[in-house]
Design brief:
Helix 1 runs parallel beside helix 14 and helix 6 runs parallel beside helix 9. It is built from 15 helices and 16 strands. The longest helix is centred in the C-terminal third of the chain and has 25 residues. The chain folds into 2 domains: 383 residues, Alpha-Beta Barrel (TIM Barrel); 87 residues, Glutamine synthetase, N-terminal domain (Ubiquitin-like (UB roll), Roll), CATH 3.10.20. It is an alpha/beta fold and 489 residues long.
Length: 489
């Protein structure tokens, strides 16, 4: 069967993936233990991590990459000898990840800044965790006065979200960890203010857990997501080895009240981690609600903690009902570059298993399966998060509404817009347009080129012999507005 699906296997291995959900790496001298690469457990429970199937499998995979003995001691020796930069480059290259959308709201000792990750992967975008924003405000020394009210807190919270809305690719909530997914979008301000008061009465640093306050923050954030057309990532399901959640409250079906709220019908919600063990429920929601998308996050702390059959079964359950156009890859990698490598490696293996089986069952032909690979690993994330990826930055795409173009990429201090294309001979061509005329030209008229430009050769800046194309007559070149971005120089 492997030979039959060689083309599918090649597509799975060679597609440069967009990692739609991950976290920061830590410095080599971080106190964060390397054993946490394999589990989110802490204390005495972490000592049992080496006795799991996933640990043994993952350790072998890492040792194979590093060409060292498959023991924790030897792997750690190799890491120390090579240094963070070397092992990170090795892991990300092997993972074939072209871009990362990173939630930097989780705090580790000696955590690297977002920009630092561009040394290892071409492009990095930011996903903003709303609970982290709230806690940053509350734990600030200036927030300790008794004059603070829910209104003043809300004003500050919304101001911070709005101030970065054009610099991020999405929002994220971990309400599932704190109070559960049964979000009350109609929570009263009285209850929310009482919740804020209770949080302030506790010890600092405050870790927001009050359900009324969290529901209120979640609802306010959805309003911002709608206003700025930002997707909202939502933690759903289990977190392996982590006691910091009540699994009963993490079933995505609890989100039905949010999904039925007409105010947020256009807000795209991304259910993270395949909602395991509620993958079937997540698949159902994606099939009946247009705004629901799925991220199967095959990272170390999530699905690869399962057996191979468990991972395969979970992805199959997602695809039972959910449209392929709504299913996305991520690693949920964090702290250690090996988590990215392992997440990507297992994801590619599982996707191949599931799609080749779908071909055997007659659900897909091979070409449809190959198209699904591109969708799952790359295209769906690019479209959902409205991304342009170039020059080491992640930019939101331009959206065209009526006769005006709305974008954060074209700003008042831009004087010219450079339009670049490949001609029929493969040469790069360029036309510069004054920014003042750009909107009218791009939307209504395109860019004028002579007929001769259609016959240019790669060795002579003129039409090829025999084309009979001259400088008389005009064609119109219409720019692809989804590719607009601001040059970083």
């Amino acid at each position: 069967m492997e030979a039959k699906y060689a083309e599918l296997r090649r597509a799975v291995e060679e597609t440069a993936a967009v990692d739609a959900h991950a976290h920061n790496l830590v410095a080599a001298d971080s106190s964060f233990p390397f054993l946490r690469c394999f589990s989110e457990a802490e204390g005495d429970a972490l000592a049992f991590a080496p006795h799991s199937l996933s640990f043994k499998r993952s350790l072998k995979d890492i040792a194979e990459l590093y060409k060292c003995e498959a023991s924790l001691e030897k792997v750690e020796e190799f890491r120390k000898a090579q240094g963070l930069s070397s092992i990170s480059s090795k892991c990300f290259q092997a993972a074939n990840i072209s871009s990362i959308l990173m939630d930097d709201g989780i705090q580790f000792d000696r955590m690297l800044e977002l920009e630092s990750h561009k040394d290892f992967v071409p492009t990095v975008g930011r996903v903003l965790r709303i609970e982290w924003v709230a806690e940053t405000i509350i734990n600030d020394d200036s927030f300790s006065g008794s004059s603070w009210t829910l209104d003043s807190f809300t004003e500050t919270f919304l101001s911070k979200l709005k101030s970065v809305a054009n610099k991020i690719v999405g929002l994220k909530s971990i309400a599932a960890y704190r109070s559960g997914l049964d979000i009350d979008t109609c929570v009263s301000k009285t209850d929310a203010e009482d919740g804020l008061r209770k949080e302030l009465a506790g010890q600092k640093p405050v870790r927001v857990t009050n359900k009324s306050l969290i529901d209120y923050l979640f609802t306010c954030s959805l309003e911002i997501a709608v206003l700025f057309n930002l997707p909202m990532q939502i933690h759903t399901g289990y977190s392996f080895g982590d006691k910091d959640l009540d699994l009963r409250k993490c079933n995505p079906l609890h989100l039905c009240a949010v999904l039925e709220d007409e105010r947020f019908a256009k807000c795209q919600l991304v259910l993270l981690h395949a909602s395991y063990p509620f993958s079937k429920e997540a698949s159902y929601l994606a099939s009946v609600y247009s705004q629901v998308y799925l991220d199967f996050g095959l990272a170390i702390p999530k699905l690869p903690k399962l057996s191979v059959q468990g991972m395969t079964s979970s992805l199959k359950e997602l695809l039972h009902l959910a449209p392929i156009k709504k299913v996305m890859f991520s690693t949920d990698g964090y702290a250690f570059p090996e988590t990215y490598y392992l997440g990507a490696r297992r994801a590619r293996d599982v996707v191949y298993r599931v799609l080749s089986a779908a071909c055997e069952d007659g659900d897909l032909c091979i070409q449809e399966a190959i198209d699904a690979v591109e969708d799952i690993f790359r295209r769906n994330a690019l479209d959902l998060y409205k991304l342009n990826i170039a020059n080491g930055s992640v930019h939101q795409k331009t959206t065209i509404t009526d006769t005006r173009i709305s974008t954060s990429c074209v700003e008042q201090d831009v004087l010219f817009v450079r339009i670049v294309w490949n001609d029929a001979s493969g040469q790069h061509r360029c036309r510069v347009v004054p920014a003042g005329r750009f909107y009218e030209i791009a939307k209504n008229k395109g860019v004028g080129l002579t007929f001769a430009s259609m016959g240019m050769t790669s060795f002579c800046d003129g039409p090829a012999d025999g084309t009979n194309l001259t400088g008389v007559g005009e064609i119109r070149l219409m720019p692809d507005m989804s590719t607009i971005l601001r040059l970083p120089w």
